[in-house]
Every structure is written in structure tokens, then in C-alpha cells.
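User: C-alpha cells for this one?
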Amino acid sequence: VGRFGNIVRRELEARVEQREVELKKAALCVSLEHERIDVSLPGQPFPAGHEHLITQTIREIEDIFVGLGYRVAEGPEVELDYYNFTALNTPPSHPARSSHDTFWVQEPRETMPEAVVDADRGVLLRTHTSPVQVRTMEAQRPPVYVICPGKCYRRDSDATHTPMFHQVEGLVVDEGITLAD
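Assistant:
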């Protein structure tokens, strides 16, 4: 009886599997008949990712200040000694001008503008965004309301500093302005 039961069970299982295959084929035919796919349409786009956290933060800061009436001013990351130090009244003997604190770029003196002929080295990676403030004041008469976001470079090599960092400085030049503003 057991042997006969196993034969019947196997035959029933084979018929069930065969019927499942037939039903799946029939369902596929019905879906292909009613659900046509236009293969000429573009596929689903891949997600583009998201902005870096620093970019998000800088844009938030910019949005806040632009909402307060400020402009966003940008300047070069490779800067002239004149704008980075001299125009900001940094004396020639100041430690920030040393090779230990600043990334200097060597450039022949004859290619330098007249304003920097007296500079020690001439061209550097900016150490702060203050040169953008100088350039803004040269290009625009008061009132001035700007923020200067950007990358800065300093020769820091300990665990708490990196040689490149981001900075946002603000500049306001107007009548009746106090530190409280």
C-alpha cells in the first residue's frame, strides 16, 4: 500500500507542477497582450546622489545671508602675496608669511604685477578668504555687504588640523555700522 501511495503522490506532484507551468505561461500571455511596454521610452533614472555635507552647509549659510541682503563674493584660491598679506597690513616679518605656515608657489619676478614687486615670494595658496574682501573693496564703493566663502590652505600637519579647510568671512562697510550689527 505504501509503495502504491508513493507512486500516486509522485504522479499528482508532477501534474501539479505541470499545471503551474501552464498557468504561468497563460498569465504571461495575458499580461503581454494587455500590458504592452514601449521599449523606445527611456528607462528609470538612477538616483544622482546628494551634495557633500560641506557644500550643503555653505549653501545654507549663503541662503541666510543673501536673505539678509548680502552678496556672495568669490576669489581665486591661488592668490598674490599683495592681496593675501600686504593689503591686509601683515608685516613682512610676520610668521604667517613663512614657509612653515603658507604654501608658496614660485613664479619669476618679471611676470608679477607692479603691486607685488616688493613681495618676498609673490604667489601662494590663500591662507584665508580675506583677500576676497580686499578685491571686493577695490571693485565696489560702499556700502558693501558681502560674505566670502571658500577653501583656504595652511601648512598644518597635526591630528587636529588639515592643510585645506573651508571658511566663510563677512564684510560690511557702511555708515553707522557697529560691532552689534
